[in-house]
Structures are given as structure tokens and as C-alpha cells.
Amino acid sequence: MAKFQSLREAVAENLRDGDTVAFEGFTHLIPHAAAHEAIRQGRKDLTLIRMTPDIIYDQMIGMGLAKKVVFSFAGNPGVGLLRRMRDAIENSWPRSIEILEHSHSAMANAYAAGAAGLPCAIFRGYVGSDLPKVNPDIKSIICPFTGEKLAAIPAHRPDVAFIHAQKASRRGDILIEGIVGVQKEVVLAARRAVVTVEEIVDDFNDLHPNLCVLPHWAVTSVVHVQGGAHPSYTHGYYARDNAAYLDWDKVSADRALFTEWMQKNVLDVGPEVFAARVEGL
Amino acid sequence: MTVSDFTPNEMMTIAASRALSNDDVCFVGIGAPSAACNVARLTHAPDITLIYESGTIGTAPEVLPLSIGDGELCETALTTVPVPEMFRYWLQGGRISIGFLGAAQLDRFGNLNTTVIGDYQKPKVRLPGGGGAPEIATSCGEIFLTMKQAPRGFVDKLDFYTSFGHGDGGDHRQRLGLTTKGPTLLITDLAVWKPDPETKEFTVVSMHRGVTRQMVQETCGWPVRFSDKVDETPAPTELELTTLRDLQRRTELAHGSKKGN
To answer: Quick check: B193 pLDDT over 90?
Structure first.
């Protein structure tokens, strides 16, 4: 049953040192505010799962929260590479990290398998690719009916999932619109789920019957954080802050500049700063 | 600039756009493929179905997206489906006729590397990774590739096989059980290439205006094979060039710096 909490309480109650956690968002609805709270609380030894690690995982890795990253495309979307993640992989700064690399198809299937309560995902994939040579989790299975060899990987079952969404009702039901990505699957695959939302409305009575809605009893915690996806976007509320993505390329290029930026923009502030960051977007 | 005065990049995008037709269902990679697919849609293929891996089906963006998940793609799409559905039902289900991809490194058989330059464990350059490409490369009916030629991109031997093209050539795809065609076309800033019907090695079939065989060879890391008859790629028409330039101008205006920290 969803609890309405402050972001501080939601992260403190749901994210523990050593957890496997997914902060998801497929270029849209990326839970920046929640990731910043995890950084402020100084969580350690996390296994981070994400299809498209971008700025927030670059920040978490650069601040030393991650011991392992499971992913399929690690980049600053539309801009370039993730410099903090590269520094950790190539130079072990600020600590060494393990990586476990998949394709998008594999990651999406692994979330769907987790949501479906299955131990593994089965799909037609990785044919001719070198990825199975570097990722021991990629195995194969023979279809008992046709004899076709298919790829098999473990289901994603994160301890906790964090997503951002447009709306919650007063009961804690969640509405997600636009590019829905894997938002539903990651919540249903995880043991606990924290959802930050732009807005809390009285009820969902007048909605179209087929919208993407997560019922309140499938969510652990709901937090109102206006602008909580900045600098990514929230469909219907604000656009992507592209200049911030371009800025990140410069900030993340230098360890000292990065550390200073994190102090000023993450450690010294709270989730309330996000509302102003999306004004005018 | 006039129609007789176009850049190699413009020629690449326009030549790539010509390969697409109205009836195609095309899975669009970001960057050069995205520009080509939208020029096709805005010129000779208005009814083409463009699909981006974020789940947007039948999208018709007014400006080129910054990423595969821009809101514009969803707003202009016929429908937007969850990402697992996109990869399971639509891609793996065999509903997509063409996958249009770029890469960091490519070899003569159209195998692609977007993972790492150098050793995987001790990389010289860590690239973003495969994203959707490993399964796009094997599940779409056929694959078109577009990429600028340069010795470090067109390599004799890939550092990592992220996405499978024709492997070692010949019937390598069939031997792995693949029933799709794989790479059938490569469009660069200098030339148009097609695989040899037997060996599957990419062979130059046409060169863009002003391009010499030497220029094609100098920007390629393996000994280039030229078709018996090498045509000149038809120059961009006024409509093609105007459409591309307008699209790029609208894109720049839309994505200009807005805010930042």
C-alpha cells in the first residue's frame, strides 16, 4: 500500500547499502531528484541496473555509490560518452566498478520476466555478437518444441526501483504517459518501488480506460517532487533541458570540477530546488 | 549554397534517404540514419513507418530528435508502446522490414562495433554499448548502414563484434540460423556499397560526384573492391537538398541552448 512520504524518508526506508537498485527512465521521466537524495544519503556498494545509464548513474558512480553497473547503453543521450563512468572503468576512480553488459532487448526482456515472476528471460538474441563472451549471465536454452537455440538471461529482480511519473491520485495510484519505457515492468519486477510525481490529483475518475496506471497497492512509496526529472523531461509538463546535458559533458570531464559541482548542486541542496529548475522549459 | 554545391555529408544523407520507400517499416538509429529516414519521409516516402526504439511507432517529427526518446517522437507517432513490447512483439516478431544503423567501427562484411576500442577489459576507448543494435541487426528483414568513411571507423578487423552483419562472409548468417538478409546497403559520404552476392563483402557500386577511387581507399582500412561498373551517384535534387537543409535549420532552432545549470 503506497505511503506518501518525503523524498528523504522514502530513500532512507527503501534503499540500503549493498542493494540492487534500478533508477529507470527511457530518456523520459528519469528520476534525477531521487538519485540525488541517494547521493546525499551516501549509500554504498550498490548494484545499479539501467537500460540507458546517463547523467544520474554518472553522478552516482563518480560519487562512489556503485560497485557494479548492469546496462545496455551507457551514454549522455544526444551528447556523447559518460566520463565519470569511463573514469571508474578505466582508472578505478573513485573506486573500481564491475560492469555487466547486455543489449536493450535483453534488458527489456529481463524486466518483463522479473515482473512476470519468472527466473529468467528467453528471447531470440545475441546471435553472432561478442557480448556473451564478456557477460557470463548470457546463456542459451533449447526450445523443447522446435529445437531452436534461444538466448537466456536471469530476470531482473531489483531490491528497489525508483521512477518518476506525471501524476499520483490521493490514494497513491500512479499515471504514466508518453514514452512509458520500462516504468511499469521495473516497478512490478522490484521488491519495493518509490515513485516521484509532478502532481497529486484528487482521483483518476475521468481518465481513458487504457492508460498506463500502476495501482497504489503495487507501489511502496509516493513522493511529490515537482520538476523531479530535470534535466530530462516530463511529457505534458516540461521539455528536456538540453543545455544541462551539454554542460554535463564539461563538468564531468574533470574530477575537481565534478566534485565541486556535486557539492553545490546536489549535496548542499534538497529536492525543493527541482521546481525552479524546470521553470520556463 | 546552391544545388550544385553540396557537402559530402548532405550527399550521404540524401543517398541514404533514397533507399527507403513508402511501404517500408523502418527501425531508425539515432544520428545519420535518423536524418536520412526523415528526409525520405518528407520527400518521396510520405507514408513510410518510422519506428524508434523508445516505442514510438509511425512517428513524424517536425525536427530531428536529440535522442531516441524525445517527446516529439511520441507526440507525432501513431502510437507509443512500452519498450519490452517494442523489442518482443514488433522487432523479434518480425514486423520490421528495415533496420537503419550507424556504428563507431564497421568491417567489410558489415559487422558493427559500438562497444569498445581496444581490449574489452582494458579499453582504449569505452563506447556507449550495443543498445538495440544486436537484435535489430538480426531481426529486421534487412539492414541499411550509413557512416562517414575514416580509417579508424572502416577497419580490417573489429575490436569487438557488437552486432552481427555477414560475419566472415559467405553463408555465415545461414550457418547461425539467421533467416533475415543482414546488411544489404552501405551509404557513406563518398560512395554507395552493396555486398557481393557470393562473398558478402561490401563492394563500391557508385561514387558521389567528385570522389575518386583513391579517396575511397584512403579512408578505408581494407583493400576496397569496386564493382565492374561504378556509377556516379545522382547529385541531390533541389527538393532533396532544400528538405534536408530546412529540417536541419528547424532542428537547430528547436534544440538551441535553453537553460542549463
So the answer is: yes
A243 burial class (0-12, 13-18, 19+ CB within 10 angstroms)?
Answer: middle
Q: Which residues of A touch B172 (CB under 8 A)?
A: 128
User: Cβ separation of A235 and B71 shorter than 8 Å?
Assistant: yes
Minimal Cα distance from A103: which residue of B? B131
pLDDT for the residue B257: 52
Burial A36-68 (b: 16+ CB within 10 A, else e): bbbbbeebeebbbbbbbbbbbbbbbbbbbbbbe
A73–B130 CB contact, under 8 Å: yes
pLDDT in tens, A164-215: 999 999 999 999 999 999 999 999 999 999 999 999 999 999 999 999 899 9
Neighbour-count burial of B242, counting CB atoms closer than 10 A to its CB (0-12 exposed, 13-18 middle, 19+ buried): middle
CA–CA separation, A72 vs A49, rounded Å? Answer: 9
- Report, as residue numbers or ranges, the catalytic residues of B: 53
Give the confidence band of A99 by pLDDT, cuts at 50, 70, 90: very high
Q: Is beta strand A174-176 parallel, antiparallel or unpaired with respect to A212-214?
A: antiparallel
User: What structural domains does chain B harbor?
Assistant: 8-253 (3.40.1080.10)
Please report, for chain A, the start and end positions of each structural domain, with discontinuous segments joined by +.
3-100+157-277, 104-154
Buried (b) or exposed (e) across B218-238, using 16+ Cβ within 10 A? ebbbeebeeeeebeebebbee
- Map grid coordinates 521539455 to a residue: A239
A256 touches chain B (CB under 8 A): no
Contact A89 B123 (CB under 8 A): yes
Domain A3-100+157-277 sits in CATH 3.10.129.10: no
- CA-wise closest residue to B143 among B131, B133, B154, B153: B133
What's the pTM? 0.96
Q: Strand, coil or helix: what is B140? A: coil
Q: What angle do CA A66, A68, A74 make, to 5 degrees?
A: 90
Beta bridge partners of B193: B186, B204
Greatest extent of chain A over all pairs of C-alpha atoms, in Å:
59
CB atoms within 10 A of CB A88: 23
Chain B residues with CB inside 8 Å of A239's CB? 71, 258
A227 and A238 Cβ atoms separated by less than 8 Å = yes
- CB spacing of A127 vs B257 below 8 angstroms: no
Mutate to test the interface with B, among A59, A79, A103 (most CBs of B within 10 A): A103
Q: Which residue do the cell numbers 542493494 mark?
A: A19
